[in-house]
Design goal:
The protein is of the alpha+beta class. It has five helices and five strands, in the order ααββββααβα. A hairpin with a 2-residue loop joins β2 and β3.
Length: 115
């Protein structure tokens, strides 16, 4: 099981990837939404903002945050690291229930090009 620091590093790497997005992914990165990523096996949630082509102002909160983000992801730390590392495709993980996404349909459609 990865540590909180390893998961945070994976989110930072994902944010750096977003900054270099092109084509359809570039329009998805243009979103300005609150974002949370719950790591179920560590019982922590990373909360931040998807804005300016990056994930910004990320803080770590134990458990579930009181305020619900506009885009909420939930997965294990291993799955986060595998997705960011390119070993696990987001669509496959989402379809199998390994990754849960709660967002508006419009946001999900725009985000699928990123993940």
């Amino acid at each position: 099981m990865p540590t909180i620091e390893e998961c945070r590093d994976a989110l930072d790497r994902f944010s750096a990837t977003l900054a270099g997005a092109e084509g359809d992914a570039k329009s998805a990165v243009a979103l300005d939404r609150s974002l949370s990523c719950r790591i179920t096996d560590l019982d922590v949630t990373f909360v931040g903002r998807l804005a300016g082509g990056r994930i910004q102002d990320v803080v770590t909160i134990p458990g579930d945050p009181e305020e619900k983000a506009q885009i909420r992801l939930s997965m294990t730390g291993d799955d986060l690291l595998r997705m960011v590392g390119g070993e696990l495709h987001f669509a496959k993980a989402w379809g199998s229930g390994r990754v849960k996404v709660q967002a508006s349909l419009r946001d999900v459609l725009r985000l699928r090009s990123l993940l």
